[in-house]
Amino acid sequence: MDKKLYKYWSEEEFKKAKEFAANKQTPFLLIDPKRAAKKYKSLKANLPLAKIYYAMKANPHDEIIRTLADLGSNFDVASIFEIQNLMDLGISGDRMSFGNPAKKESDIIFAYQHGIRIFVTDSMDDIHKLAKNAPGAKVFFRLLFEGNGAVWPLSKKFGAHPDMLYKLILEAKNLGLEPYGISFHVGSQQKDIGQWDHALSLCKYMFDTMKAEGLELKAINLGGGLPTKYVGPIPSLKKYTDVINRLLSENFGDKMPEIMIEPGRYIAGDCGMIISEIILISKKSETSEHRWVYIDVGNFTGLCETEEVIFPIYADPEIYLPGQTSESEVILAGPTCDSSDIIYQNYKHKLPDELKEGDRLYVMSTGAYTYAYSAVCFNGFPVLKTYILR
Ligand SMILES: *Cc1c(COP(=O)(O)O)cnc(C)c1O
């Protein structure tokens, strides 16, 4: 094993985390909100045009929300429960955008009553509900995107084609809503920067088309999709923001619209690590090539995006010394009795040959879409516990 773990958290950070975790029972997610703050600040610095709306579904932990709220973040919400969560933390509706195109009338009423005036839509049905229950609200129209190049595409569920958006925008206007802007989501963990190019030229097309109808759109919501570092390379944040900044100025020049962005994974991904313990190591036959390593966290307790997302997984680099430990490929499985609870079988992580039951494994970059996905008590295993590192 090399020192790769320290590419994710520095040696100093890791030692501090390990010490904090030493007497706590696994499995759990350890979160360092300072790391999320750092990501927020660098996005702000690299994309100064954009107002940031943290997509809280990535990690809705109070400490993450508070940290970002203190830095001035706004929030993308998808349900009345997320709204309530933010209200409970003293965050008002004028800092929220209701980004879910599928909502009940009662959700809209709740949101509007709590001061939310920005909604995202992609259907006639929803526009009628908005016109009735959120009069005068600013409405974003979501473009359909397939999510090519994304590790977690989100494809096809939300958004509509430009010709449909055109009709929706006119209808919204007729019904007294304020057609405000275009939104999109290029797919989560999007490694192909060209997808923003495509999206922004469609936005430009929509702006021009509506202008010809005498209707001026005012804003673009860039959605999510910025990546976090897992196994393998990703372009730097600056590569993304340079392209986005250039495309915005090429397409819109000195008539720059208001810009919003809704990062989730980018902000929360690398602020957390899951600490887990090995339950059992076995071989299926004398001749089989791979060891099966069963650990106390799995698909139902947070590691749900595997195998699309390849989380970096390490044994303790202070026990299994980098460069001095022989390693081989393993199959990693979770603790439940569901046969789908295999964490990595196609992707083979390499772990020390001397690895034994009771050793801890560190699953890095697990701050986003882990504990929020954790099931309640499947097979009796509790929801993934979370600790905050201070
Ligand atoms: C999930 C979601 C996001 C965040 O996406 P990431 O890829 O995690 O950045 C942003 N906007 C909307 C509307 C979403 O549903």
Fold topology:
Layout: H1 5-8, H2 11-21, E1 28-31, H3 33-46, E2 50-55, H4 62-70, E3 74-77, H5 80-88, E4 96-98, H6 105-113, E5 118-121, H7 124-133, E6 138-142, E7 150-152, H8 162-174, E8 178-183, E9 188-190, H9 194-212, E10 219-221, H10 237-252, E11 258-261, H11 265-268, E12 272-282, E13 291-295, E14 313-315, E15 327-333, E16 342-352, E17 360-363, E18 385-388
Parallel strand pairs: 1-18, 2-3, 2-11, 3-4, 5-6, 6-8, 8-10, 10-11, 13-15
Antiparallel strand pairs: 1-12, 7-9, 12-13, 12-17, 14-17, 15-16
Bound molecules: pyridoxal-5'-phosphate.
The site of pyridoxal-5'-phosphate has 16 residues, from helix 11.
Order of helices and strands: HHEHEHEHEHEHEEHEEHEHEHEEEEEEE
Distance between the termini: 29 Å
Kindly give the count of domains: 2
Q: What spatial form do the alpha-carbon principal axes imply?
A: elongated
The CATH homology group name of the largest domain: Alanine racemase
CATH architecture of the largest domain: Alpha-Beta Barrel
CATH fold-level topology of the largest domain: TIM Barrel
Number of distinct helices: 11
Oligomer: single chain
Sheet with the most strands?
8 strands, mixed
Segments where pLDDT lies below 50 for 5+ residues? none
Question: Quick gist of this model?
Answer:
With 390 residues, this protein is an alpha/beta fold.
